[in-house]
Amino acid sequence: MKRSIIKSTGRYVPDRHVTNEELAGLMDTSNEWIVQRTGIEARYWVREGEDIGTSDLAYEASIIALQRANWNPEDLDLIVFATMTPDVNVPGSGAFLQNRLGDKNIPALDIRQQCTGFLHGLEICDAYIRSEKAQKILLVGAEFQSRYLELTTENRDTAVIFADGAGAVCIEAVETSEEVGIITSILHADGKYSGALRAGLPARKSGPAISPTVIQNKEHFPYMDGKTVFKLAVTRLPKVTEELLAKANMKIEDLNMIIPHQANLRINEAFRERLNIPEEKMYNNIQRYGNTTAATIPIALDELMEKNMLKPKDTIMLIGLGAGLTWGGVIYKMI
Ligand code: UT7
Question: What's the gap in Å between 23 CA and the centre of ligand 1?
Answer without folding.
Answer: 15
